[in-house]
From TrEMBL:
GO molecular function: homoserine dehydrogenase activity; NADP binding
Keywords: Amino-acid biosynthesis, Methionine biosynthesis, NADP, Oxidoreductase, Sodium, Threonine biosynthesis
Reaction(s) catalysed (UniProt annotation): L-homoserine + NADP(+) = L-aspartate 4-semialdehyde + NADPH + H(+); L-homoserine + NAD(+) = L-aspartate 4-semialdehyde + NADH + H(+)
EC code: 1.1.1.3
GO BP terms: methionine biosynthetic process; threonine biosynthetic process
Record bears the keyword Transcription regulation: no
Protein name: Homoserine dehydrogenase
ACT domain span: 363-436
Gene3D superfamilies: 3.30.70.260, Dihydrodipicolinate Reductase, domain 2, NAD(P)-binding Rossmann-like Domain
Residues at the catalytic site: 213 (proton donor)
The gene coding this protein: hom
Pfam families, per database record: ACT (PF01842), Homoserine_dh (PF00742), NAD_binding_3 (PF03447)
Amino acid sequence: MAELNTESTTPTVGVALLGMGTVGREVLRILGEAEQDFTARIDGRLEVRGVAVSDLSKPREGVDPALLTDDALGLVKRDDIDLVIEVIGGIDYPRTIVMAALNAGKSVVTANKALVAAHAMELADAADASGADLFFEAAVAAAIPVVGPLRRSLAGDKVNAVMGILNGTTNFILDAMDKRGASYDVMLAEATELGYAEADPSADVDGYDAASKAAILASLAFHSPVGFDDVHCEGIRNITADDIAAAKAAGCTIKLLGICERLVDEESGDESISARVYPALVPLSHPLATVSESFNAIFVIAEHAGRLMFYGNGAGGAPTASAVLGDVVAAARNVVHGGRAPGMSTYANLPIADFGAVRTRYHVDMTVQDRPGVLAEVASTFAAHGVSIKTVRQEENVDGARLVVITHHATEQALEETVDALMQLEAVKNVRSVIRMEGN
Ligand code: HSE
């Protein structure tokens, strides 16, 4: 419970900050700069009473050394702590601390997408049991308000799809490969230097960071538990300059997309969820194609609201701190005034669809022998698997002919079987790449 400040009637909310990395430092800086505004917005004063760090010997600018501790668990259990801000990262260690805080009835604000994607239900159950709040706006696309809109603003609607650019590092790399002809390796190094990339950039380039965010978005959008392991995930390591050029030739650009979709079985009407992350061709006319550099954008399609787009800074210290502090104000107001934000809503409990049932379009790039009948053979292989061809482009190359086929919508299973069959044809020298096409 918030306590009354003896000099005034303003209650004080005791805060524990876990982590003093880029985001933790910004949280403290902004809190210090706008103290009176926070007090007015909360109807109570925030007091940071402890800051947990892993290495006490490191100099920490902007924080009273007396507040520093390496005992995060002890800190969150203290009686004078009402609210815990977790910006440590990782999964197992913060899970222990956050669970202890929630079990003790302390509200938690976390920016940790990996933790929420892996353990949302366990954390939400603990919060429900103790009456604490659990907020995680910063876990998805940092400064962009999308968790709050899905959790609150769209609670009266039916969301059918969420599709977005959920990772700044990969967007930065793909955008530079497209616009400047830059190489993948050079741009990855630049993204790391600029602080966009995760400590281990494979979380970015292999799609895991986006997959965590997609799991969180799918859970909220479809009122169902969706975890990291439920998300089909492919990264951008295999995207080449040739793929980018082929996308341009098709009037598209390549983006790493996180897609959460409500699938409806045509015969039974049964609903299921597809959550997936992969690089895809996006037509230049689609709003997501214009999202450049390290920006993120999330497109939501709801039955009554229609199409909504959320755009902005999805990474970085200050943008992430902005989202953290928005949650801090909401959680602290609840500490002062009582009440709770709505918990995780999972009543719909929709199953996760088999990836093979997902339907999209495909850009299939192959090298074939340049002789009579080859095009017919390739076309009949697509037809035999029920995959309808939309366009075919052929150009000569040194190995024979390059054939780029763009399909109409087909299931992943049908496409996979088609590609397997194409590779058995003597006329097909290789299938260079298969990239999905989204956004049309
Ligand atoms: N590495 C992430 C990105 C930061 O590039 O978007 C936010 O999760």
